[in-house]
Amino acid sequence: MSQTALQGRRVVVGVCGGIAAYKACEVVSRLRxxxxxxxxxxxxxxxxxxxxxxxxxxxxxxxxCETFGAIAALEIEHISLAEFAETMVVVSAxxxxxxxxxxxxxxxxxxxxxxxxxxxxxxxxxxxxxxxxNPITQRNVTTLRDLGYWFVGPDCGHLAxxxxxxxxxxxxEDILDAVDQALGPTESKLTGKRVLITSGPxxxxxxxxxxxxxxxxxxxxxxxxxxxxxxxxxVTVVTGPTHERAPWRAEVVPVDTTAExxxxxxxxxxxxxxxxxxxxxxDFSPVRRTDHKIxxxxxxxxxxxxxxxxxxxxxxxxxxxxxxxxKGSRIHVGFAAETHEVEANALGKLQRKxxxxxxxxxxxxxxxxxxxxxxxxxxxxxxxxxxxxxxxxKRDIAIAIWDEIEKLIG
Length: 410
Known about the structure:
Helix 6 (95-102) packs across helix 9 (135-146). By secondary structure, the chain is of the alpha/beta class. It is built from 15 helices and 19 strands. It has helices at 3-6, 23-33, 52-59, 67-76, 81-84, 95-102, 109-116, 129-133, 135-146, 172-182, 219-230, 258-269, 319-324, 342-352, 394-406, and strands at residues 10-15, 37-42, 87-93, 120-125, 150-151, 155-158, 164-168, 194-199, 204-207, 210-212, 234-239, 251-254, 274-277, 284-286, 313-315, 331-338, 357-362, 374-381, 386-393.
C-alpha cells in the first residue's frame, strides 16, 4: 500500500469473535501507517479475544462495541460509523455475522453498521473448514457476493482447531489489497478495461543449474497491477520468477523464459485494451543448452592453467517488437531501463516498437535500480509530451504512470 493512495481515507474495521481476531490488530496498524483514518467496531464476542484497549491504541480512536452507548457518542460528534466509512472490512468474519447480514438481521452495532454502510463492505472470513463448507454458509456467501459484497478468502491451511482445510484467514496483505481497491478512484478511464502487464525477469538456461538473468524483482509490475485494480481494471500479469506476493484479484500467469513470456502475452493480446511491458526479459540466450551440469575440467586444478568456457549467445524474441504489427487500437506502453544516454535510448525504443508511451529510468541512479522499493522515471509520450517523476515509492510511481496512460484512453 502507498501512503499517497490511502492518506486521509476513512476505513471502519469490524472485528468478530474468533481466534483470528488478533490479525485485525495488524490490519488496523497497517492501515494507519498508510495514512488512513481507522475506526474499530467489535462484537461483544471479539472482546474475549482482543481487548478494546489494544484497538484503541492501534486506531487512535475510541472503539465502538455497545450499540446504544457507541451510537450516542457518535451522535454528539454529528457522525455515525456508517457515514464515516468510505469502506468497511470485517476481520475475521464469522459464519454467524455472515449469516446475519445475508438475512438482514441487525442485532448488534457491527451488523447495524454493515447494513447502513454506503461504501464497499469486505468480508475476510475465518472459521473451521466444516463451517465454511456448510451449504447454509455457502448460500449466505453467494447471496452477499451477488449483492456486491466482497470476500477475501478464506485460504486453505492449518486451522486453530489443529486440522487442515479451507477456512484460514487470508494474508493481511491480501486484505489490505482489497481495502486499497475498494478505495480506488470513483471515476477512472480504466474501469472495466482489460489490462495486461508483464513483470519481473526471465531466465535463459545454460544447463540444469545455471541461467542468465537480471536482478529485476517484479515490484514495479506488481505495483502497476495494484493501481490498475484500484482503478477498476481487469488485470492479468504475466510474470517471470519473483518472490513478490501477487496482487489480490489479479490473474497471474507465471513464466520462466523470454519465449514463454512472449507466448503467454501473445495468447492474451487480442483481448487486451492496454499492454504495459514492465518486465525485464533477458535479451540473450545460449545457442546450446546442455541437459547435464557443466563440470569444471581437471585442468583447472593446475595452478598455472588458464581455461575459458566459451558461451555462444543468440538474441531472444523481442516481445514488444513482435506485437507491434498487431497493435491496432490497443495502447502499448514500454519500459526502458538504461545505464547511459537514457533519453535517446528511450525515445529510440518508443519509435522502433510503435509504442504510445515509454517509461525510462537510469538504473545506475541511487534508489532507482532493480529490486528496490523506490524508483524515479521519465514518461515520454509519442506526441512529444513528457513527465518527470521524482524518486518515490513504486506504488506512487505506478499512480503517476497510470495517470499518464489514462490520457491516452479515448
